[in-house]
Design goal:
Layout lengths: L2 E5 L3 H6 L10 E5 L4 E2 L14 E3 L1 E7 L15 E9 L1 E2 H10 L4 H5 L4 E3 L3 E2 H4 L6 E6 L2 E7 L7 H8 L10 E3 L7 E2 L5 E6 L2 E7 L2
Length: about 200
């Protein structure tokens, strides 16, 4: 299975990191399956980074095989979503951006793709109208609705499937809103999707 990430997908987040407010096409990167961190297990800050940032995101699970999927058929390819955190070694990413290097190491290290249990969309709401937020030590640091995405889920699926064959179980991290920042040891992170607590773990 693949873990596909979408960058620069919320205008205010793009502005806070100095990127184009509305890019012309999705920014795509991948994480290995060893990056997945499930079951609310603790996250351990790696020794090779001096700044690891949190980025809360809605995660879509692919449920059928697809290649070059037309946008009108994209809704057939998912039925469940989860809440995830794309941990990013920001110092390493800044260096990569400055030199034009890929994002593999700063985005794909072990444990960098936190994911909650999945929920059926038919029970929680429409894909383009989902509220989600992240709290750290009881304070809300990120809050958004999926309607704010520059590239909605169906457009993402159409774009990504031009290059990668989508397989059952693939995960798409759909981008993060503004409010990202660094974590520190001892922090407790809680993530909510439609006001349901799905993420609750500590930083070690």
């Amino acid at each position: 299975m693949k873990v596909i990430g979408i960058g620069w997908n919320y205008p205010k987040h793009n502005a806070e990191l100095g990127g184009a407010e509305k890019p012309s096409k999705p920014t795509v990167f991948c994480k290995p399956d060893s990056a997945l961190l499930k079951e609310n297990k603790d996250f351990y800050i790696p020794d090779f980074s001096n700044q690891v940032d949190y980025e809360v995101e809605v995660v879509v699970k692919i449920n059928r095989l697809g290649k070059s999927v037309a946008e009108k058929f994209a809704p057939r390819y998912y039925a469940q979503v989860a809440l995830g955190i794309d941990f990013t070694a920001r110092d390493m990413q800044n260096e990569a951006r400055a030199t034009g290097a890929p994002w593999d190491l700063c985005k794909g290290f072990d444990g960098s793709a936190v994911v909650s249990e999945f929920r059926d969309l038919e029970n929680i709401g429409a894909i383009n109208d989902l509220n989600f937020r992240l709290e750290i030590n009881g304070k809300t640091v990120q809050s958004a609705n999926t309607s704010e995405m520059i590239f909605p889920v169906d457009k993402i699926i159409t774009y990504v499937s031009q290059y990668y064959t989508l397989k059952i179980g693939d995960l798409i991290y759909t981008g993060t809103p503004d409010g990202v920042g660094p974590i520190k040891r001892g922090d407790r992170l809680k993530g909510y999707l439609q006001d349901e607590l799905l993420l609750d773990f500590e930083i070690k």
